[in-house]
Protein backbone atom coordinates (compact mmCIF):
# COMPACT_ATOMS: atom_id res chain seq x y z
CA UNK A 1 0.00 0.00 0.00
CA UNK A 2 2.92 2.32 0.70
CA UNK A 3 4.20 2.03 -2.88
CA UNK A 4 0.74 2.72 -4.30
CA UNK A 5 0.38 5.81 -2.10
CA UNK A 6 3.76 7.08 -3.33
CA UNK A 7 2.71 6.62 -6.94
CA UNK A 8 -0.68 8.26 -6.31
CA UNK A 9 1.05 11.43 -5.17
CA UNK A 10 3.99 11.36 -7.56
CA UNK A 11 3.79 14.51 -9.75
CA UNK A 12 4.82 12.62 -12.90
CA UNK A 13 2.48 9.65 -12.58
CA UNK A 14 -0.76 10.01 -14.54
CA UNK A 15 -3.65 8.21 -12.90
CA UNK A 16 -5.97 7.14 -15.74
CA UNK A 17 -9.31 6.40 -14.07
CA UNK A 18 -10.88 5.09 -17.26
CA UNK A 19 -8.20 2.41 -17.59
CA UNK A 20 -8.55 1.58 -13.89
CA UNK A 21 -12.33 1.26 -14.25
CA UNK A 22 -11.95 -1.07 -17.24
CA UNK A 23 -9.41 -3.23 -15.43
CA UNK A 24 -11.60 -3.35 -12.30
CA UNK A 25 -14.54 -4.50 -14.42
CA UNK A 26 -12.58 -7.48 -15.77
CA UNK A 27 -11.43 -8.27 -12.23
CA UNK A 28 -15.09 -8.43 -11.19
CA UNK A 29 -15.77 -10.92 -13.97
CA UNK A 30 -12.86 -13.16 -13.03
CA UNK A 31 -12.69 -12.74 -9.25
CA UNK A 32 -13.98 -15.23 -6.71
CA UNK A 33 -15.82 -12.34 -5.02
CA UNK A 34 -17.32 -10.45 -7.99
CA UNK A 35 -19.34 -8.10 -5.80
CA UNK A 36 -16.31 -6.79 -3.87
CA UNK A 37 -16.04 -3.58 -5.91
CA UNK A 38 -13.59 -1.87 -3.54
CA UNK A 39 -11.08 -4.73 -3.66
CA UNK A 40 -11.36 -4.94 -7.44
CA UNK A 41 -10.82 -1.20 -7.80
CA UNK A 42 -7.77 -1.15 -5.49
CA UNK A 43 -6.22 -4.09 -7.30
CA UNK A 44 -6.81 -2.46 -10.69
CA UNK A 45 -5.41 0.86 -9.46
CA UNK A 46 -2.26 -0.81 -8.13
CA UNK A 47 -1.68 -2.63 -11.42
CA UNK A 48 -2.21 0.49 -13.53
CA UNK A 49 0.08 2.65 -11.38
CA UNK A 50 2.84 0.04 -11.40
CA UNK A 51 2.50 -0.42 -15.17
CA UNK A 52 2.75 3.33 -15.73
CA UNK A 53 5.72 3.70 -13.39
CA UNK A 54 7.58 0.86 -15.12
CA UNK A 55 7.60 2.65 -18.47
CA UNK A 56 7.58 6.33 -17.43
CA UNK A 57 9.82 6.51 -14.33
CA UNK A 58 13.50 5.78 -13.78
CA UNK A 59 14.38 3.92 -10.57
CA UNK A 60 17.59 5.40 -9.14
CA UNK A 61 17.68 3.02 -6.16
CA UNK A 62 16.75 -0.57 -5.49
CA UNK A 63 13.00 -1.01 -6.10
CA UNK A 64 11.03 -0.12 -3.00
CA UNK A 65 14.02 1.29 -1.09
CA UNK A 66 13.02 4.93 -1.36
CA UNK A 67 9.35 4.22 -0.62
CA UNK A 68 10.36 2.30 2.50
CA UNK A 69 12.58 5.13 3.73
CA UNK A 70 10.38 8.18 3.05
CA UNK A 71 6.71 9.04 3.47
CA UNK A 72 4.57 9.68 0.36
CA UNK A 73 5.40 13.04 -1.20
CA UNK A 74 3.82 16.44 -0.83
CA UNK A 75 3.71 18.02 -4.27
CA UNK A 76 2.59 21.35 -5.71
CA UNK A 77 2.57 21.62 -9.50
CA UNK A 78 1.19 24.32 -11.79
CA UNK A 79 0.87 24.68 -15.54
CA UNK A 80 3.36 27.20 -16.90
CA UNK A 81 1.81 30.69 -17.11
CA UNK A 82 -1.57 29.42 -15.86
CA UNK A 83 -3.02 31.97 -13.45
CA UNK A 84 -6.40 30.26 -12.98
CA UNK A 85 -7.51 28.82 -9.63
CA UNK A 86 -4.75 30.44 -7.60
CA UNK A 87 -3.71 28.45 -4.53
CA UNK A 88 -2.26 29.83 -1.31
CA UNK A 89 -0.29 27.13 0.52
CA UNK A 90 -0.13 27.13 4.33
CA UNK A 91 -2.23 28.33 7.24
CA UNK A 92 -4.45 31.26 6.33
CA UNK A 93 -5.44 32.25 9.86
CA UNK A 94 -2.22 32.04 11.91
CA UNK A 95 -0.03 34.96 10.85
CA UNK A 96 3.32 33.64 12.05
CA UNK A 97 6.14 33.45 9.53
CA UNK A 98 7.30 29.87 8.98
CA UNK A 99 10.91 30.98 8.45
CA UNK A 100 11.60 33.66 11.09
CA UNK A 101 8.70 32.63 13.39
CA UNK A 102 8.07 36.25 14.31
CA UNK A 103 4.56 36.81 15.76
CA UNK A 104 4.62 40.48 14.69
CA UNK A 105 5.75 39.96 11.10
CA UNK A 106 4.02 41.86 8.31
CA UNK A 107 2.26 40.06 5.45
CA UNK A 108 1.48 42.91 3.05
CA UNK A 109 3.13 41.46 -0.08
CA UNK A 110 2.19 38.42 -2.12
CA UNK A 111 4.80 35.69 -1.71
CA UNK A 112 5.15 33.13 -4.49
CA UNK A 113 5.81 29.55 -3.43
CA UNK A 114 7.79 29.12 -6.68
CA UNK A 115 9.26 32.17 -8.40
CA UNK A 116 7.52 33.87 -11.32
CA UNK A 117 10.72 33.51 -13.35
CA UNK A 118 9.96 29.79 -13.72
CA UNK A 119 6.45 30.30 -15.09
CA UNK A 120 4.52 30.05 -11.79
CA UNK A 121 1.45 32.29 -11.77
CA UNK A 122 -0.72 30.10 -9.54
CA UNK A 123 1.09 28.86 -6.39
CA UNK A 124 1.60 31.21 -3.42
CA UNK A 125 2.50 30.83 0.24
CA UNK A 126 0.60 32.35 3.14
CA UNK A 127 3.38 31.74 5.66
CA UNK A 128 6.30 33.91 4.51
CA UNK A 129 6.48 37.44 5.88
CA UNK A 130 7.59 40.51 3.93
CA UNK A 131 11.14 40.51 5.31
CA UNK A 132 11.76 36.81 4.62
CA UNK A 133 10.17 37.12 1.20
CA UNK A 134 12.67 39.84 0.38
CA UNK A 135 15.75 38.27 1.97
CA UNK A 136 15.23 34.55 1.40
CA UNK A 137 12.71 34.53 -1.40
CA UNK A 138 13.97 37.17 -3.78
CA UNK A 139 17.71 37.04 -3.13
CA UNK A 140 17.94 33.25 -3.24
CA UNK A 141 15.46 33.02 -6.09
CA UNK A 142 17.58 35.38 -8.18
CA UNK A 143 20.52 32.98 -7.85
CA UNK A 144 18.37 30.00 -8.87
CA UNK A 145 16.91 31.88 -11.85
CA UNK A 146 20.49 32.72 -12.92
CA UNK A 147 21.59 29.12 -12.44
CA UNK A 148 18.75 27.98 -14.74
CA UNK A 149 18.81 31.02 -17.04
CA UNK A 150 19.89 29.05 -20.10
CA UNK A 151 17.14 26.49 -19.53
CA UNK A 152 14.57 29.25 -19.07
CA UNK A 153 15.71 30.85 -22.33
CA UNK A 154 15.51 27.51 -24.17
CA UNK A 155 12.04 26.94 -22.71
CA UNK A 156 11.08 30.50 -23.78
CA UNK A 157 9.57 31.15 -20.35
CA UNK A 158 7.83 34.44 -19.78
CA UNK A 159 9.42 37.02 -17.52
CA UNK A 160 7.50 39.00 -14.91
CA UNK A 161 6.47 41.35 -17.70
CA UNK A 162 5.20 40.26 -21.09
CA UNK A 163 8.57 39.44 -22.57
CA UNK A 164 10.45 36.15 -22.62
CA UNK A 165 13.66 35.14 -20.85
CA UNK A 166 16.75 36.52 -22.59
CA UNK A 167 20.47 36.33 -21.91
CA UNK A 168 23.48 38.37 -22.99
CA UNK A 169 26.97 38.95 -21.60
CA UNK A 170 27.53 42.42 -20.14
CA UNK A 171 27.17 45.15 -22.76
CA UNK A 172 27.63 42.78 -25.68
CA UNK A 173 25.16 42.96 -28.56
CA UNK A 174 24.86 39.18 -29.03
CA UNK A 175 21.97 37.54 -27.20
CA UNK A 176 19.77 34.47 -27.02
CA UNK A 177 16.04 34.50 -26.28
CA UNK A 178 13.44 37.20 -25.99
CA UNK A 179 10.95 35.33 -28.19
CA UNK A 180 7.79 33.63 -26.95
CA UNK A 181 6.31 30.33 -28.03
CA UNK A 182 5.06 29.19 -30.52
CA UNK A 183 7.71 31.24 -32.36
CA UNK A 184 11.24 29.92 -32.75
CA UNK A 185 14.08 30.63 -30.35
CA UNK A 186 15.73 33.93 -31.33
CA UNK A 187 19.54 33.86 -31.55
CA UNK A 188 21.29 37.18 -32.28
CA UNK A 189 25.02 37.02 -32.96
CA UNK A 190 27.47 39.79 -33.82
CA UNK A 191 30.60 39.38 -35.86
CA UNK A 192 33.65 39.93 -33.68
CA UNK A 193 31.87 38.74 -30.48
CA UNK A 194 32.18 35.23 -29.09
CA UNK A 195 29.79 35.51 -26.14
CA UNK A 196 27.13 33.71 -28.23
CA UNK A 197 28.19 31.08 -30.76
CA UNK A 198 25.85 29.26 -33.14
CA UNK A 199 27.42 26.71 -35.46
CA UNK A 200 25.83 24.25 -37.86
CA UNK A 201 27.53 20.89 -37.44
CA UNK A 202 25.58 18.84 -39.99
CA UNK A 203 22.22 18.45 -41.68
CA UNK A 204 19.63 19.82 -39.24
CA UNK A 205 22.21 19.85 -36.43
CA UNK A 206 23.82 22.79 -34.67
CA UNK A 207 25.53 23.77 -31.43
CA UNK A 208 24.64 26.85 -29.41
CA UNK A 209 27.01 28.25 -26.79
CA UNK A 210 25.34 30.56 -24.29
CA UNK A 211 26.93 33.67 -22.76
CA UNK A 212 28.81 33.22 -19.45
CA UNK A 213 26.83 33.84 -16.27
CA UNK A 214 27.94 34.34 -12.67
CA UNK A 215 26.05 32.83 -9.73
CA UNK A 216 26.34 31.60 -6.16
CA UNK A 217 25.49 27.90 -6.38
CA UNK A 218 24.61 27.14 -2.75
CA UNK A 219 22.29 30.14 -2.61
CA UNK A 220 20.56 28.77 -5.69
CA UNK A 221 20.09 25.39 -3.97
CA UNK A 222 18.82 27.09 -0.81
CA UNK A 223 16.10 28.66 -2.97
CA UNK A 224 14.85 25.12 -3.70
CA UNK A 225 15.12 24.37 0.03
CA UNK A 226 12.92 27.40 0.75
CA UNK A 227 10.20 26.12 -1.61
CA UNK A 228 10.38 22.67 0.00
CA UNK A 229 10.18 24.02 3.54
CA UNK A 230 7.17 26.24 2.80
CA UNK A 231 5.42 23.37 0.99
CA UNK A 232 5.52 21.20 4.13
CA UNK A 233 2.63 21.30 6.63
CA UNK A 234 3.40 23.17 9.85
CA UNK A 235 3.46 19.96 11.93
CA UNK A 236 5.98 18.35 9.58
CA UNK A 237 8.27 21.38 9.73
CA UNK A 238 8.52 21.10 13.52
CA UNK A 239 9.13 17.35 13.45
CA UNK A 240 11.63 16.78 10.68
CA UNK A 241 12.68 19.99 8.96
CA UNK A 242 14.90 21.74 11.50
CA UNK A 243 18.07 21.41 9.41
CA UNK A 244 16.24 22.55 6.28
CA UNK A 245 14.93 25.71 7.97
CA UNK A 246 18.33 26.63 9.40
CA UNK A 247 20.02 26.05 6.04
CA UNK A 248 17.50 28.22 4.17
CA UNK A 249 17.89 31.03 6.72
CA UNK A 250 21.69 30.83 6.55
CA UNK A 251 22.04 29.72 10.18
CA UNK A 252 23.39 26.28 9.24
CA UNK A 253 26.31 25.89 6.85
CA UNK A 254 26.38 22.85 4.56
CA UNK A 255 29.55 22.71 2.49
CA UNK A 256 29.93 21.07 0.12
CA UNK A 257 26.27 21.02 -0.93
CA UNK A 258 25.41 18.00 -3.07
CA UNK A 259 22.68 18.01 -5.69
CA UNK A 260 21.56 16.03 -8.73
CA UNK A 261 20.59 17.81 -11.93
CA UNK A 262 18.82 16.24 -14.92
CA UNK A 263 18.29 17.73 -18.37
CA UNK A 264 15.15 17.12 -20.41
CA UNK A 265 15.36 17.95 -24.14
CA UNK A 266 11.60 18.56 -24.23
CA UNK A 267 10.66 21.43 -21.95
CA UNK A 268 8.29 20.73 -19.05
CA UNK A 269 4.86 22.32 -19.48
CA UNK A 270 4.57 22.49 -15.68
CA UNK A 271 6.64 23.86 -12.82
CA UNK A 272 6.61 22.26 -9.39
CA UNK A 273 8.17 21.38 -6.05
CA UNK A 274 7.87 17.92 -4.48
CA UNK A 275 9.03 17.02 -0.96
CA UNK A 276 9.56 13.68 0.76
CA UNK A 277 10.03 13.42 4.57
CA UNK A 278 12.00 10.55 6.07
CA UNK A 279 10.37 7.96 8.26
CA UNK A 280 11.62 7.37 11.81
CA UNK A 281 14.55 5.04 12.30
CA UNK A 282 16.39 5.57 9.00
CA UNK A 283 19.84 7.12 8.63
CA UNK A 284 19.01 9.32 5.64
CA UNK A 285 18.59 13.10 5.16
CA UNK A 286 15.43 14.42 6.79
CA UNK A 287 14.05 15.82 3.54
CA UNK A 288 14.48 15.12 -0.17
CA UNK A 289 13.17 17.85 -2.49
CA UNK A 290 12.66 17.79 -6.26
CA UNK A 291 12.20 20.96 -8.30
CA UNK A 292 11.40 20.99 -12.00
CA UNK A 293 11.07 23.86 -14.46
CA UNK A 294 11.81 24.48 -18.16
CA UNK A 295 14.37 21.82 -19.20
CA UNK A 296 15.78 20.99 -15.74
CA UNK A 297 14.94 18.80 -12.78
CA UNK A 298 17.05 19.22 -9.62
CA UNK A 299 17.05 17.01 -6.52
CA UNK A 300 18.53 18.12 -3.19
CA UNK A 301 18.89 16.27 0.13
CA UNK A 302 20.50 18.78 2.54
CA UNK A 303 22.16 17.23 5.57
CA UNK A 304 24.87 18.08 8.10
CA UNK A 305 25.55 14.39 8.82
CA UNK A 306 28.03 13.00 6.30
CA UNK A 307 27.26 9.43 7.44
CA UNK A 308 23.68 9.63 6.17
CA UNK A 309 22.95 7.58 3.07
CA UNK A 310 21.25 9.48 0.24
CA UNK A 311 18.48 7.60 -1.59
CA UNK A 312 16.97 9.26 -4.65
CA UNK A 313 13.30 9.04 -5.72
CA UNK A 314 11.98 7.79 -9.06
CA UNK A 315 12.32 10.43 -11.74
CA UNK A 316 10.41 10.91 -15.00
CA UNK A 317 11.80 9.65 -18.29
CA UNK A 318 11.76 12.00 -21.26
CA UNK A 319 9.88 9.41 -23.31
CA UNK A 320 8.25 6.13 -22.22
CA UNK A 321 11.00 3.53 -21.95
CA UNK A 322 13.62 6.16 -22.75
CA UNK A 323 16.73 7.27 -20.91
CA UNK A 324 17.52 9.83 -18.22
CA UNK A 325 20.32 12.35 -18.73
CA UNK A 326 21.77 13.80 -15.56
CA UNK A 327 24.74 14.18 -13.30
CA UNK A 328 25.64 14.42 -9.62
CA UNK A 329 27.27 17.70 -8.59
CA UNK A 330 28.56 19.40 -5.48
CA UNK A 331 29.08 23.07 -4.72
CA UNK A 332 32.16 23.37 -2.47
CA UNK A 333 31.18 26.84 -1.25
CA UNK A 334 28.85 29.75 -1.97
CA UNK A 335 31.56 31.79 -3.65
CA UNK A 336 30.50 33.23 -7.00
CA UNK A 337 31.37 31.00 -9.95
CA UNK A 338 31.17 31.63 -13.68
CA UNK A 339 29.36 29.05 -15.75
CA UNK A 340 28.86 28.61 -19.48
CA UNK A 341 26.70 26.05 -21.26
CA UNK A 342 26.68 24.56 -24.74
CA UNK A 343 23.68 22.75 -26.21
CA UNK A 344 23.37 20.61 -29.31
CA UNK A 345 20.20 20.88 -31.39
CA UNK A 346 18.59 18.65 -33.96
CA UNK A 347 15.87 19.81 -36.33
CA UNK A 348 17.21 23.36 -36.13
CA UNK A 349 15.16 24.59 -39.08
CA UNK A 350 11.98 24.17 -37.09
CA UNK A 351 13.07 25.53 -33.72
CA UNK A 352 15.49 28.46 -34.08
CA UNK A 353 15.60 31.79 -35.84
CA UNK A 354 19.20 32.94 -36.23
CA UNK A 355 19.61 36.69 -36.78
CA UNK A 356 22.91 38.55 -37.01
CA UNK A 357 23.69 42.24 -36.95
CA UNK A 358 25.66 41.82 -40.15
CA UNK A 359 23.58 41.05 -43.29
CA UNK A 360 21.80 37.75 -42.94
CA UNK A 361 20.93 35.78 -46.11
CA UNK A 362 17.30 34.89 -46.65
CA UNK A 363 16.38 32.66 -49.56
CA UNK A 364 13.15 33.07 -51.51
CA UNK A 365 11.91 30.72 -54.22
CA UNK A 366 9.26 31.91 -56.71
CA UNK A 367 7.48 29.69 -59.19
CA UNK A 368 6.82 30.93 -62.72
CA UNK A 369 5.16 28.45 -65.07
CA UNK A 370 7.46 25.44 -64.86
CA UNK A 371 10.59 27.45 -64.05
CA UNK A 372 11.86 28.51 -60.65
CA UNK A 373 13.37 31.91 -60.03
CA UNK A 374 15.67 31.84 -57.00
CA UNK A 375 16.60 35.09 -55.28
CA UNK A 376 18.53 35.74 -52.08
CA UNK A 377 17.57 38.82 -50.08
CA UNK A 378 19.70 40.28 -47.31
CA UNK A 379 17.89 42.21 -44.56
CA UNK A 380 20.19 44.24 -42.32
CA UNK A 381 19.11 44.77 -38.71
CA UNK A 382 17.93 48.41 -38.39
CA UNK A 383 19.76 51.03 -36.36
CA UNK A 384 18.78 51.18 -32.66
CA UNK A 385 16.69 54.34 -33.19
CA UNK A 386 14.82 52.90 -36.16
CA UNK A 387 11.19 52.17 -35.21
CA UNK A 388 11.00 49.19 -37.58
CA UNK A 389 11.90 45.58 -36.93
CA UNK A 390 11.86 42.94 -39.65
CA UNK A 391 9.68 40.13 -38.35
CA UNK A 392 8.62 38.37 -41.55
CA UNK A 393 9.98 37.94 -45.02
CA UNK A 394 6.98 36.78 -47.02
CA UNK A 395 6.56 36.33 -50.76
CA UNK A 396 3.36 36.74 -52.73
CA UNK A 397 3.33 34.63 -55.89
CA UNK A 398 0.46 36.59 -57.42
CA UNK A 399 1.51 38.26 -60.71
CA UNK A 400 5.17 37.57 -59.86
CA UNK A 401 5.17 40.26 -57.19
CA UNK A 402 7.50 39.72 -54.23
CA UNK A 403 6.13 41.28 -51.04
CA UNK A 404 8.53 42.11 -48.21
CA UNK A 405 6.83 42.77 -44.87
CA UNK A 406 8.28 44.67 -41.91
CA UNK A 407 6.52 45.77 -38.73
CA UNK A 408 7.06 48.22 -35.88
CA UNK A 409 8.55 46.79 -32.70
CA UNK A 410 5.26 47.24 -30.84
CA UNK A 411 3.34 45.63 -33.67
CA UNK A 412 1.30 48.75 -34.35
CA UNK A 413 2.13 49.44 -38.01
CA UNK A 414 3.03 47.26 -40.95
CA UNK A 415 5.16 48.20 -43.95
CA UNK A 416 4.56 46.33 -47.19
CA UNK A 417 6.87 46.56 -50.15
CA UNK A 418 5.80 45.09 -53.48
CA UNK A 419 8.39 44.44 -56.18
CA UNK A 420 7.21 43.47 -59.66
CA UNK A 421 9.54 41.07 -61.39
CA UNK A 422 9.84 38.77 -64.33
CA UNK A 423 12.21 36.03 -65.35
CA UNK A 424 14.59 38.68 -66.71
CA UNK A 425 14.50 41.05 -63.72
CA UNK A 426 18.03 41.65 -62.40
CA UNK A 427 19.15 41.80 -58.80
CA UNK A 428 20.38 45.36 -59.34
CA UNK A 429 16.91 46.49 -60.43
CA UNK A 430 15.29 44.86 -57.39
CA UNK A 431 17.83 46.43 -55.03
CA UNK A 432 17.26 49.87 -56.55
CA UNK A 433 13.47 49.57 -56.25
CA UNK A 434 13.76 48.32 -52.69
CA UNK A 435 16.07 51.16 -51.61
CA UNK A 436 13.52 53.71 -52.78
CA UNK A 437 10.70 52.18 -50.72
CA UNK A 438 12.44 51.01 -47.52
CA UNK A 439 11.72 52.93 -44.28
CA UNK A 440 14.38 55.12 -42.71
CA UNK A 441 17.08 53.12 -40.96
CA UNK A 442 16.43 49.86 -42.78
CA UNK A 443 18.93 48.69 -45.38
CA UNK A 444 17.96 45.93 -47.80
CA UNK A 445 19.72 44.36 -50.76
CA UNK A 446 18.85 41.59 -53.21
CA UNK A 447 21.31 39.39 -55.08
CA UNK A 448 20.94 36.25 -57.15
CA UNK A 449 22.03 32.80 -55.95
CA UNK A 450 21.33 29.24 -56.97
CA UNK A 451 21.62 25.68 -55.71
CA UNK A 452 20.24 26.33 -52.21
CA UNK A 453 17.19 25.24 -50.26
CA UNK A 454 14.69 27.15 -48.12
CA UNK A 455 13.67 26.06 -44.62
CA UNK A 456 10.77 28.16 -43.31
CA UNK A 457 10.16 28.79 -39.63
CA UNK A 458 7.26 30.67 -38.14
CA UNK A 459 9.00 34.04 -37.85
CA UNK A 460 11.90 33.87 -40.27
CA UNK A 461 14.13 31.73 -42.44
CA UNK A 462 17.13 29.64 -41.55
CA UNK A 463 19.80 29.53 -44.29
CA UNK A 464 21.33 26.22 -45.22
CA UNK A 465 24.58 25.22 -46.87
CA UNK A 466 24.44 24.59 -50.66
CA UNK A 467 23.69 21.00 -51.51
CA UNK A 468 26.34 19.15 -53.47
What does this protein structure show overall?
The chain has 468 residues and is α+β, with helices and mostly antiparallel strands. It has 3 domains: 1-58, no CATH class; 59-356, no CATH class; 359-461, no CATH class. The chain is built from 11 helices and 28 strands. Strands 2-13-14-15-12-17 form a 6-stranded antiparallel sheet, covered by helices on one side. It has a 4-stranded mixed sheet with strand order 6-7-8-20. Strand 6 (166-167) and strand 7 (175-177) form a beta hairpin. Helix 2 packs across helix 3 (37-56). The longest helix has 20 residues, at 37-56. It is globular. 35% of the residues are buried. Residues 357-383, 387-403, 405-414, 420-424 and 443-468 have low confidence and may be disordered.
Layout of SSEs?
Layout: H1 2-9, H2 17-30, H3 37-56, E1 57-58, H4 65-69, E2 74-79, E3 87-89, E4 111-112, E5 123-125, H5 130-147, H6 149-154, E6 166-167, E7 175-177, E8 185-189, E9 197-202, E10 205-209, E11 213-215, H7 217-231, H8 234-240, H9 242-249, E12 257-263, E13 270-277, E14 287-293, E15 296-300, E16 315-316, E17 325-331, E18 337-339, E19 342-346, H10 348-351, E20 352-356, E21 360-368, E22 371-380, E23 388-389, E24 401-408, E25 414-420, H11 427-437, E26 443-448, E27 456-457, E28 460-461
Parallel strand pairs: 3-5, 8-20
Antiparallel strand pairs: 1-16, 2-13, 4-5, 6-7, 7-8, 9-10, 10-19, 11-18, 12-15, 12-17, 13-14, 14-15, 21-22, 22-26, 23-24, 24-25, 27-28
Helix pairs in contact: 2-3, 5-7, 7-9
